[in-house]
From TrEMBL:
GO terms for biological process: cell wall mannoprotein biosynthetic process; protein N-linked glycosylation. Belongs to the ANP1/MMN9/VAN1 family. This is Mannan polymerase II complex ANP1 subunit. Keywords: Golgi apparatus, Membrane, Signal, Signal-anchor, Transmembrane, Transmembrane helix. It is found in: Golgi apparatus membrane. SUPFAM superfamilies: Nucleotide-diphospho-sugar transferases (SSF53448). GO terms for cellular component: mannan polymerase complex.
Length: 362
């Protein structure tokens, strides 16, 4: 009798082992609560993926989304920053969207990723590269991208690119989504944790850019992070529904308080400002914000598109949207055509001055 019981137990354990694994070690069954399920069945309880302020300590998975267009020149600096991030790399999945590109951005990506992913120390959990052209007709020059007449077109296309990237890359186990531009000059290596600790649904830093000393040394860069005003709402009523309001241009007098202009160099980096519109240089958002249906409008939503439309949509949906007034990320300086003309003039003056000094000495 006892022998039969022992044989039955051994047989049962062997049967369970057979079901839960085979020669290659791959599991056939997984245990969920009181049930065994085949390994083709996945179970996720979204109550476990809400996004905590101490997500790093809780081991929460983060999806980083980086749109790329003709980005080959900035890839070395971008990857240098990514390697230095202090959020555990094994918790980070990175998704790139390469779009409307005419340079060797993809080749550069492969080269850098082969090096980084081959290192156990700095390797990220997963890398995804997507490619799709959206018919972006606006050039990549600073004057092309920031001209008032092309801003609406450009922002709508960028909104669609972001949505394609997010919809392809977001996994059920991602708790946070971090959007980051490739052309950031400097940013704290702790930026993910620094933003996350404020427990906001959507949060952005302040974004400035360095300038040559003859242009003032520095300048607010991202004017897309702002609070709504009555003059702006009244202005929107006078516009065609498909027109996009562009901040920082005389054509659109919104009188909105901009996060960028409130910065003080010695200010408290933890000071928060509630926002309506946000810029896209560096955004941390809970994944549940997107699961609720928020996205980056590829059309004029309340006369806003892309990240500004996303900010207003999130506020309308009841999410908390904020910016850090004095916590600053620095964007790369790109000289405009006027800047380049000024530089040439200054170089010519220096040349003539040097020539004059040489003639005087002779």
């Amino acid at each position: 009798m006892i022998r039969n019981v022992i044989l039955s137990i051994v047989f049962f354990l062997g049967f369970v082992r057979f079901l839960t694994g085979h020669a290659s070690g791959q599991k056939i069954l997984k245990y969920y609560g009181n049930f065994y399920m085949h390994n083709t069945v996945e179970y996720y309880d979204f109550n476990d993926y809400q996004g905590a302020a101490n997500g790093k300590d809780k081991g929460e998975r983060l999806l980083m989304c980086i749109p790329l267009r003709n980005a080959a020149p900035v890839l070395p600096l971008m990857f240098s920053h990514l390697e230095n991030l202090t959020y555990p790399h094994h918790l980070i999945d990175i998704a790139f969207m390469v779009s409307d590109t005419t340079d060797n951005t993809k080749d550069g990506l492969y080269t850098h990723l082969e090096r980084i992913q081959g290192q156990s120390k700095n390797a990220f959990n997963e890398i995804m590269i997507f490619e799709k052209d959206f018919g972006q007709l606006v050039g990549q020059g600073v004057d092309d991208r920031h001209g008032v007449h092309v801003q609406g077109i450009r922002r709508k296309v960028m909104g669609r690119a972001r949505n394609w990237l997010l919809s392809a890359a977001l996994r059920p186990y991602h708790t946070w989504v971090y959007w980051r531009d490739a052309d950031i000059e400097t940013a704290p290596a702790t930026i993910i944790e620094d933003l996350m600790k404020h427990d906001q649904d959507v949060i952005v830093p302040n974004v400035w850019r360095p300038l040559p000393e003859w242009l003032g040394g520095e300048q607010p860069y991202d004017l897309n992070s702002w609070q709504e005003t009555e003059p702006a709402l009244e202005l929107a009523k006078t516009l065609d529904e498909d027109e996009v309001i562009v901040e920082g241009y005389a054509e659109y007098p919104t009188w909105r308080p901009h996060l960028a202009y409130l910065r003080a160099p010695e200010g408290n980096p933890d000071d928060l400002l509630e926002l309506d519109g946000i810029g896209g240089v560096s955004i941390l958002a809970r994944a549940k914000v997107f699961r609720h249906g928020a996205n980056f409008p590829g059309f004029a939503l309340w006369n806003h598109a892309e990240t500004e439309g996303f900010g207003k949509m999130c506020r309308r949906m009841g999410f908390r949207v904020a910016g850090l007034i004095h916590y600053t990320v620095w964007h790369q300086y790109e000289p405009s055509e006027d800047d380049l003309k000024k530089i040439k003039e200054m170089e010519e003056l220096e040349r003539l001055k040097a020539l004059g000094n040489a003639n005087t000495n002779n």
